[in-house]
UniProtKB/TrEMBL annotation, chain A:
It comes from Parabacteroides hominis. This is FecR family protein. PANTHER family: PERIPLASMIC SIGNAL SENSOR AND SIGMA FACTOR ACTIVATOR FECR-RELATED (PTHR30273), PROTEIN FECR (PTHR30273:SF2). Residues 116-210 form the FecR protein domain. The keyword Transmembrane helix applies. Residues 254-322 form the Protein FecR C-terminal domain. The lineage of its organism: Bacteria, Pseudomonadati, Bacteroidota, Bacteroidia, Bacteroidales. Pfam families: FecR (PF04773), FecR_C (PF16344). It comes from the Bacteria. The chain crosses the membrane at residues 80-98. The keyword Membrane applies.
UniProtKB/TrEMBL annotation, chain B:
The lineage of its organism: Bacteria, Pseudomonadati, Bacteroidota, Bacteroidia, Bacteroidales. Belongs to the sigma-70 factor family. ECF subfamily. Residues 19-82 form the RNA polymerase sigma-70 region domain. This is RNA polymerase sigma-70 factor. The keyword Electron transport does not apply.
Length: 325, 185
């Protein structure tokens, strides 16, 4: 009977065994005590936090807030309810959300902007109301209107994102970043454009996109799948890629393919919001390839790299800084 | 990972943080007693709705965890008591209700439940603790634990039963004792 209790709590019990167990509990006080104790022990241990807890909760919090907000709008602004943000957001591992809505004007539904940011070391999936999905990498911000215009769908990006743009021939989708703009009708592609970071690139997986600087797309570079555009001396240059592993960040994996140590360090600093001081000159001669789980954190990446070429590192928690020697 | 939450001021300023920190744990807790996932979610939703509506005025005198614990416990109790269920679940729910009624952690408890449980788990022997955490916190099946640690199923079962026994002693203040005096109906 006691093993049936285990089976019951692991959801592996059959209907027949369950009946048998419950009947026995009714008559056997010791067994009942065991059952109730295990039950309550399980409930008490529910309060120990797990790694995934917060990621699940962020999505739920957004739903919760969304429901409250729509209710608040329902009375005074009934006619604009249709425009009330209908963005459904699923978040995997973040909770510092900045979701600001500027108050709409009563007479005429003005465009209000929403902003979504991911903190360091985490990523998020956003679904915009036109059906476009956007994966946001660590420390990225997407600013988007609460409803898209008829002729254009415009968003602003600071950071790295993977877009799967819902096709709409009449309303091109435009992503503006600090360094360049990207115009598409409907495709899948990655954009790397952190503000204040010298690197910019966009890589196309499916469809076609135009990349240009400034307002006009007259001199835009058109790219096709497996082509990419990057910034070189302030100018956009076309290239191509055959290894798509760098897109694995969507699945929470940072992949590096034959890159210098300094490149990895730069990415780690960016994604995990940490300063890394590299004092081991020898390491700069080597190139590295490897895949790392985002959630394992920056120290785990360094520990793995240590196994390839030995170096030591110290973390200074106070100054959020790692020194490599 | 989770920072201690101070609730000085009002719930209002900390609502998001409280939600994100405790939502999953409260759901896990409710799930233990409420039979269906959807109902468990409703129980937790109701608790946060209450917090939200009273966020301006609520003044919590006990620890936040104790407060949330009581809310989710009481809401689950309400659910179990009022749920008119099909005959097939009646017996199961009766046991759940009985268990929850006897869960002695209440609003007046001064200790923080998370710390109490964590301390109890910390006192387990190392191997035992490792297996218990894999099973209970990471949700691994006995078979998977046995494979991962390269030990027999028997060992896993034994270690788990040792863990449960020891935890039961450590947490005896919160668990039912005088069961044989209470009958179900």
């Amino acid at each position: 009977m006691y093993e049936l209790i285990t089976k019951y709590f692991y959801g592996e019990i059959t209907a027949k065994e369950k009946k048998q167990l419950f009947a026995a509990i009714e008559t056997d006080a010791e067994l009942k005590k065991e059952f109730l104790s295990v039950q309550n022990l399980r409930a008490l241990t529910s309060w120990i936090p797990t790694e995934e807890d917060e990621s699940v909760a962020v999505g739920k919090l957004l739903e919760f807030k969304q429901a409250r907000r729509e209710k608040a709008f329902a009375i005074p602004y009934k006619h604009i309810l249709g425009y009330a943000a209908t963005v459904c957001i699923a978040v995997f591992s973040t909770w510092m959300i900045t979701s600001r809505t500027e108050q709409p004007v009563v007479e005429e539904p003005a465009i209000a902007y929403e902003e979504f940011s991911t903190p360091s070391g985490q990523r998020a999936l956003l679904k915009l109301h036109d059906g476009t999905t956007v994966w946001l990498n660590a420390r990225s911000t997407l600013r988007y209107p609460n409803h898209f215009g008829k002729n254009e769908r415009k968003v602003e990006l600071d950071g790295e994102a993977f877009f799967e743009v819902k096709r709409n021939e009449k309303a091109p989708f435009v992503i503006s970043t600090e360094k360049a703009n990207i115009k598409v009708l409907g495709t899948k592609f990655n954009v790397f454009a952190y503000k204040g970071h010298e690197e910019f690139n966009t890589s196309l997986v499916e469809g076609a996109v135009k990349v240009y600087q400034g307002e006009s797309d007259a001199d835009a570079l058109n790219i096709t799948p497996h082509e990419c555009v990057f910034l070189s001396d302030g100018k956009l240059v076309k290239s191509y890629f055959d290894n798509s592993d760098f897109l694995l960040w969507k699945e929470g994996i940072y992949a590096f393919d034959d890159v210098p140590f300094s490149y990895i360090i730069k990415k780690l600093e960016l994604y995990y919001d940490i300063t890394i001081i590299q004092k081991n000159k020898k390491l700069d001669q080597y190139r590295f390839s490897g895949k790392f789980r985002q959630r394992d954190g920056v120290e785990s990446v360094l520990q793995t790299l240590q196994k390839v070429y030995y170096f030591s590192f110290v973390k200074d928690e106070e100054n959020n800084c790692i020194t490599i020697r | 990972m989770s920072k201690p939450i101070s609730i000085e001021g009002s719930i209002r300023n900390n609502f998001d943080r409280i939600y994100v920190t405790y939502y999953s744990r409260m759901l896990r807790f409710a799930r233990e007693y409420v039979l269906f996932e959807e109902d468990a979610e409703n129980v937790v939703q109701d608790v946060f709705l209450l917090l939200w509506e009273k966020r301006e005025v609520l003044d919590i005198q006990v620890s936040l965890v104790s407060y949330l614990f009581s809310l989710v416990k009481n809401r689950s109790l309400d659910y179990l008591r009022h749920k008119v269920v099909a005959e097939e679940y009646k017996q199961e729910l009766t046991f759940k209700l009985l268990a929850l009624e006897q869960l002695n952690y209440t609003l007046t408890s001064e200790e923080d439940i998370e710390k109490v449980v964590a301390n109890a788990i910390d006192k387990l022997p190392e191997r035992c603790r490792e297996i218990f955490l894999k099973s209970r916190i990471e949700g691994m099946k006995y078979r998977e634990i046995a494979d991962e640690l390269d030990i027999s199923m028997n060992t896993v079962e034994n270690q788990m039963s040792i863990a449960l026994k020891k935890l039961r002693i450590e947490l005896k203040d919160y668990l039912p004792l005088l069961l044989f005096l209470i009958s179900v109906k």
